[in-house]
Structure to design on (161 residues):
């Protein structure tokens, strides 16, 4: 049996894993500017940051043409934008209210569950094991609830007597 090595990966695999790594860093960091000192001092509205993010996404999306990807138009891009704009804006509000780690942890977990639901229920993508899938979803939900509960700031009440 031959041991696996990086040289066994195809160019498509390298592109896929590299893209996934860039995605992890980018999606894990896009809300960071709202927490920086300068943004807090001027009280930047989440809609302003969302506008910057959408403008950057639009401008950088043209870069794929440099790699030889042919231009194509789909109205589904507009549908995607209808979800991306309010979702990103709500994310910025969540970061302001709950903090970066809590808000991002909650929405990323829920994003995975929603995407999985679309794949399984709407697009009928196969799973290897229904029991394993349901068990994993259960663990993820328990982790999400635990993370949400234990990362929230406990409210203290003071009574005057």
């Amino acid at each position: 049996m031959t041991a696996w090595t990086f040289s066994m990966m195809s160019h498509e695999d390298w592109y896929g894993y590299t893209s996934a790594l860039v995605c992890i860093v980018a999606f894990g960091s896009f809300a960071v500017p709202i927490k920086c000192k300068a943004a807090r001092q001027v009280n930047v509205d989440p809609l302003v940051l969302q506008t910057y993010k959408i403008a950057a996404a639009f401008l950088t999306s043209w870069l794929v043409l440099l790699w030889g990807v042919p231009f194509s138009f789909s109205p589904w891009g507009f549908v995607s934008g209808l979800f991306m704009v309010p979702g990103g804006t709500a994310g910025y509000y969540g970061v302001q209210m709950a903090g970066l780690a809590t808000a991002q942890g909650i929405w990323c977990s829920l994003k995975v569950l929603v995407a999985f639901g679309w794949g399984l229920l709407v697009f009928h993508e196969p799973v290897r094991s229904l029991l394993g899938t349901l068990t994993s979803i259960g663990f993820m939900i328990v982790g999400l609830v635990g993370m949400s509960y234990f990362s929230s700031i406990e409210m203290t009440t003071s009574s005057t007597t």
About this structure: The chain has a mean pLDDT of 84. The longest helix spans residues 76-98. The helical segments are 11-29, 37-42, 46-60, 76-98, 100-122, 130-151.
